Each structure stands twice: as structure tokens, then as C-alpha cells.
Amino acid sequence: MEHTFKIGDVVTVINRAKGMRGATGFLIEGRATILRLLDADEYYKVRFVDDEQRLGRRAFDRFVDPAAQADPRGFVQRLNVQMEAMA
């Protein structure tokens, strides 16, 4: 398995969202700390940094895209433009 990040790294998680009218797109789900490396490329067990009050100390399995880390907002914009062009 390939893993760019190590336990303890804080990363930005991008996720796909479905809108109310069936439209889909990508958004920044949040900043998260890597807790464990999972058995698939770039999949990790993470805990979201800002959501401890809302989610408690729950951990989630997430794909973390290394390409999204330098400019998460720009990355999401480019993904959404590509999605619209394919629709």
C-alpha cells in the first residue's frame, strides 16, 4: 500500500457531497489528524480536528488526496468544474 502521510499528520479531507436537487460536487470536509494507515492506497483512519464537540472522539475511514493538500480550495474548484463539464 502507498501512503503519503504518517500517523499524527494533519491533512485536509475532500469529500463528495450530494445536493438537495440531486447535483453532486466536491467540498472540503475538514482538517483531520491521521490515526492509522488502512489497507488501501491513501486511505486512513482520521479524526476531524474541529468537530470533537459535535462528533465526539469518533474516527472515520477517509481517502486523503495528496494533490489536494497544497491548495484545497483550488483543488475542489477544479474538480467541480470538471464534474460540470462532464454533466
Shape: globular
N/C terminus separation: 33 Å
**What percentage of the residues does DSSP assign to strands (E)?**
35-45%
Q: What is the element string, with H for helices and E for strands?
A: EEEHEH
Low-confidence stretches: none
The structural class is alpha+beta
Radius of gyration computed on alpha carbons = 14 Å
- Regarding quaternary structure, what we see is single chain
Task: Jot down its keywords.
22% helix; 4-stranded antiparallel sheet; 4 strands; 87 residues; globular; 2 helices; 38% strand
Structure description:
By secondary structure, this protein is an alpha+beta fold. The protein has one domain. It contains two helices and four strands, in the order βββαβα. It has helices at residues 52-55, 72-86; strands at 10-18, 24-37, 43-48, 60-63. The protein has a four-stranded antiparallel β-sheet with strand order 1-2-3-4.
Helix-strand blueprint:
Elements: E1 10-18, E2 24-37, E3 43-48, H1 52-55, E4 60-63, H2 72-86
Antiparallel strand pairs: 1-2, 2-3, 3-4
Structure at a glance:
The protein has 87 residues and is of the alpha+beta class. Helix content is 22%, strand content 38%. A four-stranded antiparallel β-sheet has the order 1-2-3-4.
